[in-house]
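Students often ask what a holo structure prediction actually looks like on paper. The answer is less mysterious than it sounds. You provide the chain, you provide the ligand, and the output is a string of discrete structure tokens encoding the 3D arrangement of the protein together with nicotinamide-adenine-dinucleotide.
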Amino acid sequence: MKIRYGVIGVGGHGRNRHLIPLTKLSEVEIVAVSDINKQRCEEVASQFKVKCYQDYMEMLDKEGLDAVSIVTPTGLHSKIAIDVLNKGVNVLVDKPLGANLEEVINVVKAAKRRGSKLMIGYWSRFSPALQFGKEIMENGLLGEPYIAYGYLVRRRGIPGIPTFIDKSLSGGRGALLDIGCYVLDNLLTLLRFRKPLSIMGKVYTKFGNREDEVKFNWGNWNAKEFSLDDYAVGYVRLEDEISLILEVGWAANVSHNEEKGYIRVLGDRGGLEGVGNEAILDISFHGRTKNFLIDTKPVLKKVDMALEMIKAFVKSIIEDTNPPISGEESIILHSIIDGIYKSSEENKEVKITLPDLL
Ligand SMILES: NC(=O)c1ccc[n+]([C@@H]2O[C@H](COP(=O)([O-])OP(=O)(O)OC[C@H]3O[C@@H](n4cnc5c(N)ncnc54)[C@H](O)[C@@H]3O)[C@@H](O)[C@H]2O)c1
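The corresponding structure tokens follow.
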């Protein structure tokens, strides 16, 4: 029997990173899509030869779905995810799981209550380069990690469409939530989601609120109404004496024209350096033998990361196993994001207390 699948939110990402990969899986039957934008919903439904519902609750009530992807704007993720989970349907929520820690905790609780599967759509997790880094660390080649640094900055890439900059849709947050979550997910994956103890951070609005900047970025918006962070920096003390530092921005006066992602994890036996964008695409390991310093680069396969993400979710349903990207991980990740916003607002270091759920 095939998995009956629905997709809620079929804009750019819903189509490209969910629906298209889903068509490649023989074990899945895409049954319906839902989008409040009637025209878009009908167009996509006809393209994929499925039903269209403007109201996702109606889709859930009528279609007897086994699984759903949620690819709406971030500010709606947690509410829709809880509605879906309460119907006993398995859910893949695109990144980030919610706008803030409280929302994330509520989704994780709903999943636990219903026993349905919850996976978060960090397609970047399926990067072979990141998997290589994980293997290096699991094999002890890095020794004890003590520094983790992550950078993800665009020269001019404020995503000027309502999904990302209308506060009710974006969840009231900017670059730190939207792309900072990738940097944290990449680093925390390598660090086995060690818990944060305290955080110092600062968020800035330096470009999005300037009329003369709009034309350099993506889309169009009213600069007078823009008040989201377009740059953020954080210093996080993790358990085991690890320092994690991150810097993310939708716009900055940097030399690289394309979005640039970079991570570095230093240990007492070796170090990892990764480059890419939201996903780490290339990675190297730096260590030593008895008499030589060595640099090692893996030979990496090219993979369709979005397809791998969808496959992993579907596999977890078929085999009734835990999905590889959990809600509990998002609790740790969002406690850091919330901590940076809080520290910035209060101009001081903030202590982190994680919920008992973990
Ligand atoms: N993983 C990634 O690399 C990546 C990249 C881009 C976007 N995203 C995430 O995907 C999500 C969507 O981004 P996008 O670029 O596709 O945006 P988008 O604006 O192109 O699409 C969002 C769609 O959701 C629909 N929608 C809004 N409210 C809805 C509701 N209540 N019910 C059903 N549909 C509704 C909108 O009409 C729109 O068609 C965001 O959370 C974003 O963070 C992830």
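The radius of gyration is 20 Å.
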